[in-house]
Every structure is written in structure tokens, then in C-alpha cells.
Amino acid sequence: MICNIKDLNLNYEIIGDGMPILMLHGFFADSNLMSGCMEPILIDNKNYKRIYLDLPGMGESIGGKWIKNSDEILDIVLEFIEKIIPNEEFLLVGESYGGYISLGLLHKIASKVKGLLLICPCVIAPMEKRNLPEHVVLECDKDFTSKLSERDLHKFNERVVVQNSKTWQRFENEVLYGVKICDRELLKNIKENGYEFSFDARNLKEKFIKPTTMLVGRQDAIVGYKDAFEMLDDFPRATFAVIDKSGHNLQFEQEEIFNIMVKDWLAKF
């Protein structure tokens, strides 16, 4: 489906009926990142209307050249919400950059958000300001990885802590697919010149008192885990979990734990 905002055609998909859940993916990726981990949990649940949005310039959503920064991305998402689920409360799920946009939404429309799930969220935009562990590979099926091309192996090694055929398949389908089709020029410009909000995303105006789950990877060398924990006091109803043997893709590096934690969050509504 297409939602027109300004001169943009935003691609989105709605699955199911019931309480709306807005899913926001990471930078360079697309909505496959979210549907890949959330649909196996929700596919048999008839209580939720899942809304998978491709952010501007990502997936099949067109990115206008006028978009210069994350503030404008946030404004576009706000307009999308008003068009697709006006006057409705909703659950919010954000991964990586989608988590950053989710924090921005709490600054703008926290009263409409019934609950929050953050997966490896970006909470500090500038890479040089993040508190990051060194990247490590903790599990590797060398018989499998030896069959990958040099280019694919390099990408796999850069991003994935648990390396086997299953994690590769999901990395390829849910991460790399979006990276291949995004508007790289637009996103590079945002990343270099306007990635950070004009306000401090971590400094919420009020404590968010609704059920929250934040999942971070102990070996996540992209956004880290320590910065997220500095926000703990702003979420009185939060479950914060640092998951070992997982990096920036904990949803499929530790799939069983991820599924349990998401189901626990959903059971609160």
C-alpha cells in the first residue's frame, strides 16, 4: 500500500486487525527487518493490526531530495500516523534507527503510545559519542562461511556475532535486501549532515510509564548497550535486557530469547 505525504509515496503493509502496532526499521534497511522477527510471533494472533512502514528513501518508499535530517524523517512518520491511525492509541516497535525515531515519537505524542518495544535501539546518533564494545564473533560455522563470497563474508563478519547458515539466511533476507535497494545518496547525506535530532532524544519530557521492553546485545558494536541503560529511570514500567552472544541482530542471533521477551511484552496489553 502507498501513503502519500507531501511529494513522497511511502510504502507500507498492514497485516491483521485489532490493536495497531507500528513497526519502524533501522537505517539503510526496510520493513523486512521488522516483519522477519515479528510475524513469526504474531502470525497466529488475531488481536493486533501490524503496520510495517518503509521509512523515506528505504525499501520501496521514495525519498524526497528535500529531506535533510532526522527531524524531517520524524515529521513524516508523525504525518503517516495521523493518516493511517488517526485518533488511535498504538503499540510502538523500533529497531536501531527505528528505535531512535521511536524516542522522537515519545517526545511528540507519548500519550498515544500504549507500549514500547526497542530492539538494539540507537539512542545516541553520532557514532563517535557512543559507548561501544569491540566487535567479536563468538560462534562461526566455518564449513558454511567458507562457501560465502569474499564480499558476503566481509559483510557477515562486520555485523553478525553468531555465524551459521540460519543467521546468514536471515541477515541476507532481512538486512542486506533493504541495504541493496535503498536511496544510498539520500541516506548518506542524512547520516553525514543531519542524523542527530535537534533535541536530545534521551531527555524525555516526562517519564514513560507504560509497559516497555528494551533489548540490547552485549556484543553490539554498532549502537552498544551501555548508553541505553542510562535511560532506565525514564521508564518505570520497563524490562531492560542485555542479551549475551548477540550483536546488532539479536532478534535472529538469539531468536528463542527474543521471542520469549516479545511475548512477555505483548502479554501486558
From TrEMBL:
Pfam families: Abhydrolase_1
This protein's UniProt keywords: Hydrolase
Superkingdom assignment: Bacteria
Domain AB hydrolase-1: residue ranges: 20-253
Molecular function in Gene Ontology: serine-type carboxypeptidase activity
Listed InterPro entries: AB_hydrolase_1 (IPR000073), AB_hydrolase_fold (IPR029058), AB_hydrolase_sf (IPR050266), Ser_caboxypep_ser_AS (IPR018202)
The protein, known as: Alpha/beta hydrolase
Organism: Clostridium senegalense
Classification of source organism: Bacteria, Bacillati, Bacillota, Clostridia, Eubacteriales
